[in-house]
Amino acid sequence: MLAVAYSYLLKYWCIIIAARSSEKWIIRLINGIIEYDQKVEFFFKSTSTHHRSQSQTYWNTVFIVLITYYVITTVIIWIFHPPQSMNVLVFFTYIFQLQYFIDFTIVTSTYFFLTNLEFRFQMLNNLWKLYPIEIFTIPGGWTCSKITMFLEDIRLLHAELSELLKIFSVGYGKMLLGFFVFSYIDILFLYFLLIHLSLDEQGSISVTVTVLITSGLGKTIAFIMSIILATSRVNKELYYLRLIRISVLPVIIKQQIKMFMNQILVFESYEMTAFGVFRINMNLSITFLLLIMTGMITVIQMKNHPFSLLLFNDFTTFWDSIFT
């Protein structure tokens, strides 16, 4: 069963190499967000619109929940199944849980950047609601030239924000590809263990291990869905723009709105991908579910196959050789 432990090390190095190769893109993303915030500082000062973002309490709560999960699983392993001997492989695989910290880093950083981009898209929608185009018809309202400049500024901000989303997709695409592939392998392997544990008459592995495997399945699925949901929310279009009646507007404002809508259509055609292998959106959850169901059915059909029995026996032997 050393292959399982080595697969975690393979996952670690794949993610590290992907992160190292994407370092310049991540730096560009961070610098781009800082520059973008500096450009919209005028809107924060001249309007009542605020740049809404998740509070520090929210992120502290997420961090505490994830760390609590790690501490509980580690304590359970240490109390109910203390290792007979300690070596580097046992420490990083079962005590330190290297694979968990890899997933923790990818999911939290991905969710953090996507959430910040989502709130900046939402800020543009809030600006539209605060200053509707029809304001030029109100006596003492904005002039046509001022509305045109306002439209141009928002359009440029939207274009820059969409470019930041592209940079994120390029920078995190390799890491997300590795994360999804290895997560799929982890889910199938954990399900394989659950199937054979339910059929194991000897009961050499306790109920505690079954609980840990089940919680591991839930954790992996929760991580995957958090990324998919965050990705599906981030690329919000300026829906308020589509509600404007342009028939009564001046020609110059009509041109700006049409140009803006064409720009939105262009960016809508671009979707986040895992290094170009597959698109990351809500449809991915259905595809991932179908792949998991196919894999689970295959595992059930092959539960009595000599190779499956050999693999499970190898696991039980490896577990008994490490833990009491």
UniProtKB/TrEMBL annotation:
Keyword Membrane: yes
InterPro entries the UniProt entry points to: 7TM_chemorcpt (IPR013604)
A single Gene Ontology CC term: plasma membrane
Cell compartments where the protein resides: Cell membrane
Taxonomy, superkingdom: Eukaryota
GO biological process entries: sensory perception of taste; signal transduction
UniProt keyword annotations, A-Z: Cell membrane, Membrane, Receptor, Transducer, Transmembrane, Transmembrane helix
Principal cellular location given in the protein's record: membrane
Annotated transmembrane regions: 58-80, 92-114, 176-199, 205-231, 277-300
Family per similarity comment: Belongs to the insect chemoreceptor superfamily. Gustatory receptor (GR) family.
Protein name: Gustatory receptor
Organism: Sipha flava
